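# step 3/5: fold
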Amino acid sequence: MAAMISSRGRYALRVMAELAEHEADQVVPLKEIAAHQGLSQKYLEAIMTTLSKGGLVEGQHGKGGGYRLCRRAEDYSLGEILRLTEGSLAPVACLEAGNSPCEHPCPTLPVWEKLERLVADYLDSVSLADLLPKR
């Protein structure tokens, strides 16, 4: 079975968790995040652009620039972050937005619909704050 969550989605969660570990008003330089996460800056820039356009992070350009969360870590769900970076959490293509179910009756469709609900409900129940080390 193919991975349901791509490296892009997994890295987005890691980056968001790293930003959550900093003070709310503190911006973290992209270079620092890339080094800490072991990612190329170019790849990370693409992820940060998606997160920024989606309103999850705020970027400051220029000297002393970087990124920070727009809200408290408790106010982000992993589902929200993954839907933004992945586009869909559907386990099968026919359940993705814009696709229609098969033309013939599908006895497995209820299984995939339930799996999609279970995954979405679980990811929506976990906050970004839940990923942080307990203090």
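# step 4/5: annotate
The chain has a mean pLDDT of 91.
# step 5/5: archive (pending)
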